[in-house]
Amino acid sequence: MRNATKRTVASLAVSLLTASALVGFGASAQAATEANTITVAAPVAGGGTASPYKALVEAFNAKYPNYQAKLVEAPTETFPSDLVTKLRAGNASDIFMVQPGNGVLNALIPFIKAKYVADLSATNASKSNPKGAANVLGAAGKTYAVALDQTAGSMIFNKTVLETDGLTWPTSFAGLLSACKVAREKGKTFFGLAGSMYANNGLMIMGMSGANVYAKGDGWNVLRAAGKVSFTQSKEWRAVMTQIQQMTAAGCFQDGAAAGGFKDAIDDRFFAGKTYSVFVPGGTSVAFSNIPFMKKWTLKTGIFPGSKRVPVSSNYALAVSAKTKKLAAAKVFINFASTVEGQSAYQKVSGTLPVQGIDPAKLPVQYSEIIPFLQSGMTYAFPNQAWAAPEVYIRLGTGIQGLLTGRAIIDQVLLGVDRAWK
Questions:
Q1: How far apart are alpha carbons 147 and 137 in whole angstroms?
Q2: Which of 143, 224, 264, 344 could be cross-linked to 260 through a Cys-Cys bond (beta carbons 3.0 to 4.6 Å apart)?
């Protein structure tokens, strides 16, 4: 199926959901007062999949006829910067998606420091949030966001296409380099990478670092926060950077990957069976599997070849604008998003995992490759959530682009990251 047709099919599916929502919730909209009508801002679902935020909004509207939540979507690529701009101007949506910790532009902790978000300690968010996540979902003993899920893994792969080419998912880095050469011989590439986007380069790094930097857990971040280690001096981080150079030389990424976006990596390549794997949150293996034209293939959540652990964290959350004039209604929505019912509506569409108590035996089949790591507790939190500021992750992601093109050397990249930390 041609790419344009694929996107049309996916768009039609989302449109049908929207139409059914209007029919199903028309009465709710009429019953809701202006004070009880709130907006929820979120990025457009990637790859033409259905939106889990829409599913959550629809479930809320069905549950509470006296309220109406309206979803306000923005392109995935621009959502973080758009949100920051609106928060600074004081005209952001009542509720919006944030990411825990410090790592990205729409990260929660900088928003707390800037006083952009409302204190949600009086809601059920703190009871719902994962144990041990208080420092990335709040500050100074207060809670400022409710986690919607947990994300396991940072890449997915097409098992069907891989095996058709006589390959299995590599268990070592050397095996990966060999598989990259086979992929090229078959007219494909092993990875599709949106290399022009710092966040996609960063997600790649988050998964790769489980082979060395975080092979023993999250300890490196603790040492970095204490000023006892640095990126520049770290043999482990240098090993990650060296692997990127080796992958580039082996043809693991598509030609022009440094300038690639999601359309190049996902729509034009992964959806067409021209690349085995892409760097997206692990739950995307489930979300993509639900797209009609993808059901002919078996998709799996993968772990970077040679990794000792898999990254697992709450990766998506909701916060409330400190400027909202509808705080009471917004808190009703947050309380619903704190329930198993609300989170299940989100997770069923996103393919991500429960906030509390991941049971490997009950996971979708797409997670089978990483179940042994989950069962043994061989996990680590997504590293960037604990880093000093979004600029650290941004500098790392943009530095990787330089490595892909050969215009930067490892020392430059790591020194830039350390400077961003300060």
A1: 8
A2: 264
Strand order in the sheet with 317-320: 68-74, 37-43, 95-98, 317-320, 146-147
Q: CATH topology for 152-312+363-421?
A: D-Maltodextrin-Binding Protein; domain 2 (3.40.190)
The pTM (predicted TM-score) of the whole model is 0.86
Residues 6+ apart with CB under 8 A from 376: none
Contact (CB, 8 A) for 118 and 328: no
CB-CB neighbours of 208 under 10 Å: 25
Question: Mind listing the pLDDT tens digit for each residue in 192-224?
Answer: 999 999 999 999 999 999 999 999 999 999 999
In the CATH hierarchy, which fold is given to the domain comprising 3-150+314-356? D-Maltodextrin-Binding Protein; domain 2 (3.40.190)
Pinpoint the residues of the chain covered by CATH 3.40.190.10: 3-150+314-356, 152-312+363-421
Q: How far apart are CA 396 and CA 414, in angstroms?
A: 8
Residues 233 and 215: their CA atoms lie apart, in Å, by 17
Q: What pLDDT score does 16 carry?
A: 28
Q: Give the whole-angstrom CA distance, residue 67 versus residue 33.
A: 7
